[in-house]
């Protein structure tokens, strides 16, 4: 699961002047015409250097978000109540790893190895979705994540699935199919608490209160301050604006929360019937950028756990690296 | 019919084994050595827990047992009949792989014997999960063989893991009190026969891997009588943490 | 001792490393393309790829990554490096296919001829 808007843009915009000039203008025109016709770009195709770089960054961050996103919910695998919840949660966290696998493969077709991507994650050079830097404190948090964070991710992923890069679209097609199971099992567990005992309901309300701000942050800063380029929209790398996706999410899910008698911790939250747009209090964007920088409650733990996994699996990976085949490991071709 | 008393004992120990080892193996989900293996190992953990669930349902349906969730999430360690092998912490991947190899071959031998069982629900369950178990042992064998052929460090780790697991694995075959009845009524061939078949099945793999099979000098018994290490109660406290907040609630 | 809310994590004994840990190129092994057969008699279709040390483990991995949901009866794996394909910009080699109607049933207007013949014979 992934939200696109918070992509940490540290690359600036100088590329537009430098690199695009180096791209062959005839090829660039053909490339852009192809995208405008709705055709997909495939791994071996000519593509502008910046298109390749932005896509690697996008898909890589998405992949990282999946394997880091497996951690807050993984917290509750050993504590999930009852067989059905236990199995569904393990299967869901397993899917997140599976999504990471698909996405790293898609990114690899652009020329960056999985190893290099994992190293950039571990060193902090490459980011993942901010929402996973918050702790899952109770079982109710799992239901909020499973329902609402996954719902938000679906909004984003369904948009991205209409993008221009073939391997990413194909990975997303499979991912969206599995996300529909995630959403359903999350919604089911959420409803169970919302309609359960007073203690269960209180637990859920508490989780909802804590997660609301991270959820509002999920799609990234408002369009008026967000640094995304026209070019990325034209190239169908970025498919929808942060505000549009956030509005789409609020429109679909706030009523589903309210209908269960739950409240959201924002007195200004309401749909403007004239504009059809949702209005809400501005979330704390300074906090959002602080967490991106690494100062959220769980940033360090998430990366330390990932490092633990990589370090402890190393002897196995290294033992099975075949010397004779090491001269060149091929990347995925499709 | 005497097996009315003896059968639940068999079903409970099998189910408890499956639940506890499945729970342990699920601790690797998200933390595996490489994504592809993470996914494979997680599927098998789910399968184990699924087998436990199926067995608890047989207990409920045929022997007036309690609701599977209540039975699994509310009992204390002394009431659990799993082998001590299953309850050991995941430790490191070599240990977890070796436990998976030894346990899954034992499980396979057991379910294969049920294809002849006079107790139809077990026969049906065995038929249903045959393919799953085939994959589990295929996976385990492949890893054992590959890691043992991948240099001294890797092979040394696997030998050490085998040495650490083997007596514990012997505990899977601890005989039950009413086993004679089950043998006589052709429900299953009994632990001693399963143990022999298990040895026959794992030995060629162990040999091909170049590992040395330790002597079964001191199988770790006790689990089937409710004697456990401290690890099991800790596991159960954790597993039941949410469920026990309100056992009457639905979650 | 960690201060995690995750009992799993607390058992890991994290070493709070400084970020210097990195993995080596090739540590995730080779890439194999995976082909999935949904039912007997159907073609195997490309569904993605797995990283594995050899074809044997690639197949074992593919079984769970690409065969754990939906119908599947068989899988193939093949090293990505062994796949030979045309460059995508060479798709113009196929461009005239639709014009070559002499290869296609639609290129032969049998009924027109029959109808013409019948009309003349009246």
TrEMBL record, chain A:
Taxonomic source organism: Chitinophaga pinensis
Protein EC: 1.14.13.149
A Pfam family that the UniProt record links to this protein: PaaA_PaaC
UniProt keyword annotation of Oxidoreductase present: yes
Gene: paaA
EC top class named in words: oxidoreductase
Biological process terms in GO annotation: phenylacetate catabolic process
A GO CC term assigned to this protein in UniProt: cytosol
A GO MF term: phenylacetyl-CoA 1,2-epoxidase activity
UniProt-recorded name of the protein: 1,2-phenylacetyl-CoA epoxidase subunit A
Keyword terms: Oxidoreductase
Keyword Oxidoreductase tagged: yes
TrEMBL record, chain B:
One GO BP: phenylacetate catabolic process
Domain of life: Bacteria
InterPro entries: Aromatic_CoA_ox/epox, Ferritin-like, Ferritin-like_SF, PaaA_PaaC, PaaC
Gene3D superfamilies, sorted: 1.20.1260.10
GO CC terms of this entry: cytosol
PANTHER family: 1,2-PHENYLACETYL-COA EPOXIDASE, SUBUNIT C, PHENYLACETIC ACID DEGRADATION PROTEIN PAA
Identification of the protein by name: Phenylacetate-CoA oxygenase subunit PaaC
From TrEMBL, chain C:
One annotated GO molecular function: phenylacetyl-CoA 1,2-epoxidase activity
UniProt keyword Disulfide bond present: no
Matches recorded under InterPro entries: PaaB, PaaB_sf
Name of the top EC class for this enzyme: oxidoreductase
Key words, A-Z: Oxidoreductase
Enzyme Commission code: 1.14.13.149
Name of this protein: 1,2-phenylacetyl-CoA epoxidase subunit B
Origin organism lineage: Bacteria, Pseudomonadati, Bacteroidota, Chitinophagia, Chitinophagales
